[in-house]
Write a structure and sequence with these properties.
Pathway: Lipid metabolism; fatty acid beta-oxidation. This protein is α/β, with parallel strands linked by helices. The protein contains 28 helices and 16 strands. Helix 3 runs parallel beside helix 4.
């Protein structure tokens, strides 16, 4: 686990614990053994710690955090024990970092005397993403090395700090060009015999405490503040107390689930046996996008930023020019926010070609259709593309509501295509989740239940800002009505009318039922009043100006709702917070269970990942399916049955059979095993 060897005067500890050299017990023991050898060997004058494989050390083994507290705390040697041995060593200890030095990995570096890294390396304390704080002296040592405000930023953001930035702060002593080990050996020779006292961080005073008072609210910040206020030993003791408190809490539990859920979700598999590990993706080099609206231009920016050339096609020059302008503005905004350099922006714009002729897509490897939601238009485009594009081209659709089998993972989609798209998603910096084709797919299908219930709740007596506040207090970044204003009320109305047209039905303000289901025409009322959301300065809220961002509760909306309910004879009542929360969340969760049942996703984790990235569901709640598992499936099922009884004309309240079976299992079934119940007799 830690391979020991000597090169002349230098002992090398090579951490060898694939895949990411986490600090499991035998790695920690490896350090103790290595240190004992190096200390007792008079020939050894310095020690280098280096990682084997893809990375230096990615921190603690996160799976260990699920162990009972006593076992976790008594698992010796602890990282602090090892750290103390490293720091007290009379022979200089040098960490040579490539890949990532994170969490406990960085703490180990801070106990060492010197830190070198290759330029591409990253260091950081991502513990906050797991709901804990760096508790092997990280909060006490980093503020002794760097300015306290920098330490607070790194610890409380959890971000990965690139080597050049880390060098600037003094976290690293040097960036190494060329072979990391060879250069580190040279460096080791240069420091042999130099005094180590100034390199021992525990003895240094904390750097300035400027600015920290107003931001010290959370544990990380409190702990960093302790580095300034308390002795090293007292600060360490408090750090350990905070850690014990946090690690046993719900948020850390949910965040650790989230860490593994995201990685599990990447591992797609098809019934044929093809999967992420055994299917090679094709190499996509050139791309085309059809449609220069909000979606098309947004996708174009992602592809250009990732280095792909893009041919953007629109039906006429005016729309095309508008689209190109939009792309230019988004990129410029990126430059002004320092997300990219001016040169990079110019390269991106050079890689963009615009055309009004689909024929220019003849040679591209991948085409994404992103026109508005109209099935006949989409079908017509794909018919043409079939004829124009080369046979190996991948044809993709950006539809969110139209159920056409050719869109996502459809019946005819090959494993190689799936592998290519999943890989392509990663390359453009997105998180891809494999879902089968179904009406509205996963995100919109579940979120549709959530939004629909929110509107019914308005009809029954609540106000938009009340519903939004309750969901925002729960942790959603925006309530359903703010989201609707942002997306544009016309968009959802147009989709509803499109669906109704497909069934030869005309929706009016008096429509209360659509295909046997309860229906709310409230948004159509706003649409008719020209209250389309942020863009018109009025929607469910009013805004300071058209395009404004500040949602202000609007008394006029009260009247709109009151008139609507009076005309349709809907009675209004007081609705409790619990009911609002349950109806929005449980309706979506029940649908999530149906989605798993139908095999639209492979596992519940896929749904949770979709909700974090799609709707900003708080990761510290784990995602809707994890939240349900923690609430108790019996409770969720009982409430779904209750609402089904009360609202029989909403099919999203028909209880999922999978949910029913899981809720009656003799013992709670862990979320990772829900799928097994699908095929069991429960
Ligand atoms: C003794 C302890 C004393 C002190 C404790 C300190 C607290 C900590 O250290 S908490 C941990 C802090 N570290 C992290 O949060 C890092 C998490 N890992 C990552 O960010 C990334 O994995 C990466 C290191 C940047 C590498 O990314 P990438 O190359 O994209 O690989 P992945 O697919 O993410 O990971 C590969 C594989 O490794 C598993 N894994 C990664 N990190 C850990 C870990 N710290 N513990 C356990 N397992 C880890 C990950 O789940 C993947 O597993 P698969 O089975 O292949 O899915």
């Amino acid at each position: 686990m830690v391979d020991y060897r000597k090169e002349g005067l230098v002992a090398i500890f090579e951490v060898n614990n694939p895949p990411v050299n986490s600090l499991s017990k035998n790695v920690r023991q490896g350090f103790v053994d290595g240190l004992s050898k190096a200390t007792n060997d008079p020939e050894v004058k310095a020690v280098i710690i280096i990682g084997k494989g893809r990375t230096f050390i990615a921190g603690a083994n996160i799976k260990d955090f699920g162990k009972p507290m006593e076992e976790l705390m008594s698992s010796s040697p602890s990282l602090i024990d090892i750290g103390n041995m490293l720091e007290e060593s009379e022979k200089p200890i040098i960490c040579a970092i490539h890949g990532a030095g994170l969490g406990g990995g960085l703490e180990l570096c801070l106990f060492s005397h010197y830190r070198l890294a290759v330029k591409s390396a990253r260091v950081g304390f991502p513990e906050v993403n797991l709901g804990i704080l760096p508790a092997a002296a990280g909060t006490q040592r980093l503020p002794r090395l760097v300015d306290i405000t920098v330490a607070m930023d790194i610890i409380s953001s959890g971000r990965h700090v690139a080597a050049p930035e880390a060098l600037k702060y003094g976290i690293l002593d040097q960036i190494v060009e060329g072979d990391l080990l060879k250069e580190s050996i040279k460096f080791a020779h240069s420091v042999i015999g130099k005094p180590l006292e100034p390199r021992r961080l525990r003895n240094l005073a904390c750097k300035s405490i400027l600015y920290c008072i107003s931001v010290i609210h959370q544990f990380c910040l409190k702990s960093v503040r302790n580095a300034a206020d308390l002795s090293y030993e007292a600060g360490l003791m408090m750090e350990n107390t905070y850690f014990k408190y946090l690690i046993t809490g719900f948020q850390s539990f949910a965040l650790r689930y989230s860490f593994f859920a995201e990685r599990t979700a990447r591992k797609w598999q098809l019934p044929s046996g093809a999967n992420a590990a055994n299917t090679k993706p094709l190499n996509v080099q050139t791309t085309g996008i059809i449609g220069a609206g909000t979606m098309g231009t947004g996708i174009a920016v992602s592809l250009l930023r990732a280095g792909y050339p893009v041919i953007l096609v629109e039906q006429n020059q005016e729309f095309l020019d508008k689209g190109v302008d939009m792309i230019r503005n988004i990129l410029k905004d990126g430059v002004s926010r320092r997300l990219m350099t001016e040169d990079r922006m110019k390269q991106c714009l050079k890689a963009l070609k615009a055309s009004v002729d689909l024929k220019h897509l003849a040679n591209v490897d991948l085409v994404i259709e992103a026109v508005y939601e109209n099935i006949s238009l989409k079908q017509e485009i794909f018919k043409k593309l079939d004829y124009i594009c080369k046979p190996s081209a991948l044809l993709c659709s950006n539809t969110s509501s139209i159920d056409i089998d050719m869109n996502v993972y459809g019946k005819e989609t090959s494993a190689e295509t799936v592998a290519t798209i999943m890989d392509f998603g990663k390359k453009i910096g997105k998180v891809s989740i494999l879902v089968k084709s179904c009406h509205l797919f996963v995100a919109n299908r579940m979120h549709g239940c959530f939004q629909t219930e929110a509107k019914f709740i308005l009809e029954e007596g609540a106000l938009p800002d009340e519903v939004d506040r309750i969901l925002e207090d729960f942790g959603m970044p925006m309530g359903p009505f703010k989201v609707s204003d942002l997306a544009g009320i016309d968009i959802s109305c147009r989709i509803q009318h499109e669906v109704a047209k497909q069934h030869d039905i005309e929706l009016t303000l008096q429509t209360r039922f659509f295909r046997g289901e309860r229906y709310s025409s409230l948004s159509n009322r706003l649409y008719e009043l020209g209250r389309l959301g942020r863009k018109t300065g009025k929607g469910w809220y009013r805004y300071e100006k058209p395009g404004g961002k500040n949602a202000i509760p609007d008394n006029d909306i009260k009247d709109v709702i009151r008139i609507h309910c009076k005309e349709l004879g809907i009675e209004q009542r007081q609705i409790s917070t619990q009911e609002i929360l349950e109806r929005c969340l449980y309706s979506a969760i029940n649908e999530g269970f149906k989605i798993i049942e139908e095999g639209v996703v492979d596992k519940p984790e896929d749904i949770d990942v979709i909700w974090w990235y799609g709707f900003g569901f708080p990761r510290y709640m784990g995602g809707p399916m994890f939240y349900a598992s923690q609430t108790g499936l019996k409770k969720v099922y009982d409430r779904v049955c209750y609402y089904h009884k009360n609202f029989p004309y909403s099919s999203h309240w028909v209880p999922s059979d999978l949910l029913r079976r899981l809720s009656t299992a003799p013992n709670p079934v862990p979320i990772t095993q829900w799928k097994t119940v699908l095929h069991s007799k429960l």
